[in-house]
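Box 3.1. Reading complex inputs
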Amino acid sequence: MTLASGFSASLPDWLEADLPNLPVVLPTLEDRMDLVNDLADRNWRAGNGGPFAAIVVDAATGRLVSAGVNVVLSSGLSSMHAEVTAIGLAQSALARWDLGASGADLQLVVNWRPCVMCYGATMWSGVRSLVVAGDGPELEALSGFDEGPVVEDWAAQFEARGIRVTIGVRREEAVAVFRAYGDSDATVYNARGAVV
Amino acid sequence: MTLASGFSASLPDWLEADLPNLPVVLPTLEDRMDLVNDLADRNWRAGNGGPFAAIVVDAATGRLVSAGVNVVLSSGLSSMHAEVTAIGLAQSALARWDLGASGADLQLVVNWRPCVMCYGATMWSGVRSLVVAGDGPELEALSGFDEGPVVEDWAAQFEARGIRVTIGVRREEAVAVFRAYGDSDATVYNARGAVV
């Protein structure tokens, strides 16, 4: 067997088709999270992956830089959670691995506290702020996902690296998406033998 | 600006060209780590990214499934650490997001304890074992990289999820690569304001 020399990830067809219709600017944090919650709900219903979405925006203006969803199932790549996808799309569009280069103040908006992988992916991306709908056990309890072990002082660790954290935007709406997902028979793509 | 709908990562030219020359089978853990240390050293010297490499092998036979290196700089994607790259290449080659599907016993071999992102990426990949050259502060001290906050019981958390951990294969050789890198003027791609 020849070894692979590359791989790629793409948005699902429904979202690629909808990109031209997304708002160009999302002025408030609530505007931003409303889009994230909507994409998250549409994503799992379309069978592309988990009920997660993330966007990268200019923190000050709300100009949309990228929109990602969890494409683990459709891409066949376990790393393609919504945050990794949104960050990769933003870096691809801007042609730089450091989203914070040249003083840019970009923000990642996502519908829950990132899993341990995406916690690190956010940390290394160069975004200067993170906005989450919520944190806490609701996600794992409702969806069945294992989020992995994240340090207790996770938000302080972001702040120490110059990444501002806002928790609790459209929280109830985010939980409603997880509940709908958990009530369905969608695939939960945990690692083998997850303890959760 | 049109939003991006996909992105891709590729091995650097020197490694793609060398794939046909890599050993088909790496019987011992030392054989596996020797390849990883060699690729890690060649990678930073070629300017593709950090001094890191990772391979996925069949744990029992040592058959090589994928070989990855850190391609943050050459791909323009901050998530493309060696582990994420090797896992993505293996999943692409095998056409499945769960490397542990159908009872496969695949192993990730990497030249140090993964950073917090790759810790999670390993956890979600479906590999059934992880082999690292070492853990501890030498990597950050010698290379200048921020590895992020990882929980104290990181290895036990893997074991609880059915992922065996082996620490300390070709440790001195791995440290020598980090030392050479740290002594050079190569780019360290930390997030803004990293505390390390």
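In summary: The domain at 22-182 of chain B is CATH 3.40.140.10 (Cytidine Deaminase; domain 2).
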